[in-house]
Amino acid sequence: MKKLIGLCLIALIAISVRGQTTTGISRDANLTLFSGYDLKQQNISNNGYYDGVYADCPIFKNDRVNFGAWGVYDKSSFQDNMSLYKSITTEYAGGLNTGLYFAPGLGSLYSFYGGLAVGYKYSQQTGNVVKRTYNSEGLQTDQMLLSNLNLNLFKDARWFPRTQLITSWQKPFDAKKTLSENSKPIVIVPAWKNGYYEAIFKESLVDIPLNLSGELLLEPKLGISYCHYDEGLPESRSLIFEIALKKLFHDDFLTVSVQYKDYPGQKTDYFVYGISVNVLKLIQKKQ
């Protein structure tokens, strides 16, 4: 979290020094820093964090279609004080994306954008248990295929300006895990299945102007999500509340979110707090 805050401060200082400029890259690409913290409602000592950076850039783009490349890096940790377990996960992912924009015609109230991203992810997780009579250290690496479908319906109105549906899928094709217990030699053990599929639905409630020109907008959002996991707790459901800042006719440059995540049938639920800053959208001027 501290690293991300430092990166955001550096970016903001650089922006204030150079002034706001609009380039082709800042108009069409994205560079997003994100961070978050989650904790178990029943025991706040069970908690974790995540930090990362996401980027995409178009290779080809016109008024209707775009095609490009994307990449993401993130690092997360988790600790469980009941089982005295701690883990650190580092992931790298990248691939290709494409999108389609459609507006029925001049003066139409609605427009549509759909995006599809596919790619490859490499993940490495280390886990440790330290007790009086037992200790262990595990290492798992995964190579995975993943995809993401992002559907957006835009409304040229102040109320309910955007409806969004995001579906994600992840499937390992090469997973390896090793384990050492009580300082004994390392052995190969069955790997944890890290596959899942998820659906997120979000509705923007209203665009609230924050200046006289109406070019800076605050947009609260409500959402729900469902996720099914290949192993462990079978599924989770979430309620999501977001506050976003954006410039007129542009995507969000700052998002703060709170998520309540519940695992049905289990006495396990979490609060997840997140923040993301899209640096290129932050420096972008009105076109």
Write the layout of secondary structure elements.
Elements: H1 2-18, H2 24-28, E1 30-40, E2 47-61, E3 65-80, E4 85-102, E5 110-130, E6 135-155, E7 162-181, E8 187-189, E9 196-204, E10 208-209, E11 216-229, E12 235-247, E13 252-262, E14 269-278, H3 279-282
Q: Which key features would you list for this structure?
A:
mainly beta, Lipocalin, 287 residues
Characterization of this structure:
- There is one protein chain.
- This protein has 287 residues and is mostly beta strands.
- It has a single domain, classed as Autotransporter beta-domain (Lipocalin, Beta Barrel).
- The chain contains three helices and 14 strands.
- It has helices at 2-18, 24-28, 279-282; strands spanning 30-40, 47-61, 65-80, 85-102, 110-130, 135-155, 162-181, 187-189, 196-204, 208-209, 216-229, 235-247, 252-262, 269-278.
- The chain has a twelve-stranded antiparallel β-barrel.
- A hairpin with a 6-residue loop joins strand 10 and strand 11.
- The longest helix has 17 residues, at 2-18.
- The chain is elongated and about 70 Å long.
- It starts with a helix and ends in a 5-residue tail after the last helix.
- Mean pLDDT is 86; it is low at 4-23.
